[in-house]
Backbone:
């Protein structure tokens, strides 16, 4: 006759599994700060250096001046523009100002096209950039006290991998009742010249655009006429779209010319072709962006940057992906396949994943585990299953809690960045 089994006795058989799970979670939590440091900063220092600069050496009551966040990137690294494209994150700045001071909007220099891993096009800055804003002091200031200005800055910098970064900057300036002396003049003037300004009729290059509805979305053609003075090059002309929250923009073809027989440097006109692919059922009514071009009469590399708003003509619009009718889906051959057919394809694809080298050996181990449980008490099998499920849940809760604690402590971390760093993968 078998002795009665107590509740503690039932769980004693799975206690080794619980100890193993607890030990694994504990080791992970203890090593998380080290892994975060390795994944965020690698072995060396962070590739971005940030400084807070002023256009004046002192502050005068009621007289506005400029502030700048100078970001210096190591060779090969880049940060992102306010509209980074399909990848990347824009730099964020939160000002900490004395009472009575007012700051203007952040002004971004014109970006450059960048290619991120995977061939994705992004918009941002390499080597160095200066983000500008205007600051207006109050009419009354105590001359005996310094003006202390702070800024919390966060960014994403990428090369083969992407690394988030953040810092807190501060600047102390004396108060003067006289007109303040200018500071950092060449730097502020050079970057102020790269801030895009509105396009106006009478600019050196005229702009026309045409809109055509296509099956994929909306095709927009930008026709630029420089009266023989437009320089055609790698970044001239070019277009950088902004506010792409509800649609994607793709460049369909390289720059064209109205006179195909002319050499590239002699072309009078150039054409940019874009395709707008809305995400939802609403058709965008305006395409906003920055137009960039160079003139032959300017020194090489001198870009003219103009903000433009292009009206998109009204007309029938089938809608984007969210508006698609998946009851039947058109195949390439012109026939129709039902939604159930595509669900079947998805199931078959999932089954094929089991043949991958990282999955197939685990399946055999799992089958052996099932076989070894033949004849075992059903209660033990149930407890082992519960222990296995509890271990999975506890592990992912620990991962989420670790990331949440680091974020609460001010770290710029998101799940996935660490897997881009070889040091983390090796560990």
Residues:
């Amino acid at each position: 006759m078998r002795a009665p089994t107590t509740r503690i006795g039932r769980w004693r058989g799975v206690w080794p599994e619980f100890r193993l799970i607890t030990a694994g979670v504990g080791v992970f939590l203890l090593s998380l700060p080290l892994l975060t440091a390795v994944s965020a900063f690698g072995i060396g220092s962070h590739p971005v250096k940030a400084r807070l600069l002023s256009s004046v050496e002192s502050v005068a009551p009621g007289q506005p001046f400029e502030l700048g966040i100078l970001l210096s990137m190591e060779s090969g690294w880049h940060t992102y523009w306010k509209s980074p494209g399909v990848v990347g994150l824009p730099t964020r700045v939160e000002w900490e100002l004395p009472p009575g001071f007012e700051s203007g909007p952040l002004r971004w220099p014109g970006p450059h096209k960048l290619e991120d891993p995977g061939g994705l096009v992004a918009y941002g800055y390499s080597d160095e950039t200066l983000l500008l804003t205007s600051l207006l002091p109050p009419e009354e200031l105590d001359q005996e006290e310094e003006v202390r200005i702070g800024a919390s800055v966060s960014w994403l910098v990428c090369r083969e991998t992407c690394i988030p970064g953040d810092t807190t900057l501060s600047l102390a300036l004396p108060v003067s009742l006289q007109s303040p002396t200018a500071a950092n003049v060449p730097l502020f003037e050079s970057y102020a010249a790269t801030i895009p300004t509105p396009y106006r009729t009478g600019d050196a290059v005229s702009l026309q655009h045409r809109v055509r509805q296509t099956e994929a979305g909306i095709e927009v053609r930008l026709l630029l006429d420089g009266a023989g003075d437009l320089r055609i090059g790698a970044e001239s002309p070019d277009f950088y779209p902004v506010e792409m929250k509800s649609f994607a923009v793709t460049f369909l073809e390289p720059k064209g010319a109205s006179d195909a027989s002319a050499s590239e440097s002699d072309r009078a006109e150039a054409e940019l072709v874009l395709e707008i692919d809305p995400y939802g059922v609403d058709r965008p009514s305006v395409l906003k962006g920055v137009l960039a071009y160079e003139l032959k009469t300017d020194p090489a590399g001198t870009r003219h940057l103009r903000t433009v708003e292009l009206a998109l003509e009204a007309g029938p619009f089938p809608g984007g992906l969210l508006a698609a009718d998946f009851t039947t889906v058109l195949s390439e051959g012109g026939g129709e396949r039902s939604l159930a057919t595509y669900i079947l394809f998805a199931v078959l694809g999932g089954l094929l994943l089991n043949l991958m080298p990282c999955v197939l050996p685990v399946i055999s181990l799992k089958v052996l585990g099932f076989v070894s449980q033949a004849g075992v008490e059903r209660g033990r099998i149930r407890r082992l299953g519960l222990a296995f499920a509890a271990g999975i849940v506890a592990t992912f809760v620990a991962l989420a809690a670790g990331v949440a604690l680091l974020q609460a402590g001010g770290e710029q971390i998101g799940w996935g960045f660490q897997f881009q760093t070889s040091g983390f993968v090796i560990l």
